[in-house]
Amino acid sequence: KGPSAFIPLGEILQEGAENSRHQLLIEAFVSAGRVDNITMVMGLHPQYLSSFWKTQYLLLRMDGPLPYHKRHYIAIMAAARHQCSYLVGLHMGEFLQVGGNPAWLQGLHCAPQKLRNLNEINKLLAHRPWLITKEHIEALLKTGESSWSLAELVQALVLLTHYHSLASFVFGCGINPEEDQDGGHGCWPPSPHSDSSPASDDSMGSSGGKDAMQEVEVLMERMKLLQESQLEEEGVTQEEMATRFELEKTESLLVTPADIADHSLQSNVLCFVEDPEFGYKDFTRRGEQAPPTFRAQ
C-alpha cells in the first residue's frame, strides 16, 4: 500500500518531516494539482528531489528544439524499452495534454519516421551503450526529410538516457500505480506472475502462483548445477558465475507460466518497442579482448 511497495507508508508520511520536504510537496501540488508517487518517495531526499525536478522541468517544459509532444513521446519510447508501464502510462497522458496526436499512441509504427529512426539508438542506449559509434549519430544527422538537427538530437538523447535511468528508479523503489489511474499504470517489470503481481487477475485462479513456484524450483535446480560446475572448472571467477546466474534467471523469467500474458503490458508498452528480444549482454569476458568503449569526459 502507498506510493512504494518496499517503503512503509508511515515512513513516507511521517509527521514532523523537515520543512524543506514539506515545502517541496506543496509546490508539487500547486504546480501539477497532484503529488505523484515518484515525488512522494523521492521526497525522502529533498535536495535530490529538488535537483531532479529542475532537470526534468528543463527537459520537458522549457525552451528547446523539440516540441513538447515529441519530448513526451521520446520518454514513452525510452520507458517502453525497459517495459516500465508506470512511466509509459504517465507520459501517454502528458502527451495528450500537450496536444499530441492520439493515433501515435497506437504504437511506434504510427509515429512519424523521424521518431521511429530513434529506435536503434534507443535500443542500444538502454541495453548495450558501448556498441554506439559515430556512425549511429551520422545516420540520424544525414540530410533528408526525416533528418535530425544536432540540437534536436542532443535533447532527444538526453531524454532517452534520463528515462532509462528513471525506469530503474521506479523499479528499484517499487513505485506503485497512482490510485486515480485506470487499474494503475504499474511499474512492474516482466516477471513470473505471482498472486501479488498486478499482472495477475481473478481469472487466473490459484494456478498462477503454483506455476510461479514451480519456476522457482527449476531456477534453484539450475543454480545448484551451476555451483557444481564451478567446482569442476578451474579459474572461474565470481563475476563470471554471477553473469551465468543472471542469464539463467533471465531465461527463466521470460517463460510465462501457463501461457498467461499481461494483456495490458502487451498492448500499452510493447507496441512502442521493436526487437523486444534485444537486451543486456556482457561486453567483456575474461580471456577476450575487450571492445573499445565510447567515452566522453
TrEMBL record:
<dbReference type="GO" id="GO:0070728">
    <property type="term" value="F:L-leucine binding"/>
</dbReference>
<dbReference type="GO" id="GO:1901031">
    <property type="term" value="P:regulation of response to reactive oxygen species"/>
</dbReference>
<dbReference type="InterPro" id="IPR029032">
    <property type="entry name" value="AhpD-like"/>
</dbReference>
<dbReference type="GO" id="GO:1904262">
    <property type="term" value="P:negative regulation of TORC1 signaling"/>
</dbReference>
<dbReference type="GO" id="GO:0005634">
    <property type="term" value="C:nucleus"/>
</dbReference>
<keyword id="KW-0560">Oxidoreductase</keyword>
<dbReference type="InterPro" id="IPR006730">
    <property type="entry name" value="Sestrin"/>
</dbReference>
<feature type="region of interest" description="Disordered">
    <location>
        <begin position="181"/>
        <end position="210"/>
    </location>
</feature>
<dbReference type="Pfam" id="PF04636">
    <property type="entry name" value="PA26"/>
</dbReference>
<protein>
    <submittedName>
        <fullName>SESN2 protein</fullName>
    </submittedName>
</protein>
<dbReference type="GO" id="GO:0016684">
    <property type="term" value="F:oxidoreductase activity, acting on peroxide as acceptor"/>
</dbReference>
<dbReference type="GO" id="GO:0071233">
    <property type="term" value="P:cellular response to L-leucine"/>
</dbReference>
<dbReference type="GO" id="GO:0005737">
    <property type="term" value="C:cytoplasm"/>
</dbReference>
<keyword id="KW-0963">Cytoplasm</keyword>
<feature type="compositionally biased region" description="Low complexity">
    <location>
        <begin position="193"/>
        <end position="205"/>
    </location>
</feature>
<dbReference type="GO" id="GO:1990253">
    <property type="term" value="P:cellular response to leucine starvation"/>
</dbReference>
<comment type="similarity">
    <text>Belongs to the sestrin family.</text>
</comment>
<dbReference type="GO" id="GO:0016239">
    <property type="term" value="P:positive regulation of macroautophagy"/>
</dbReference>
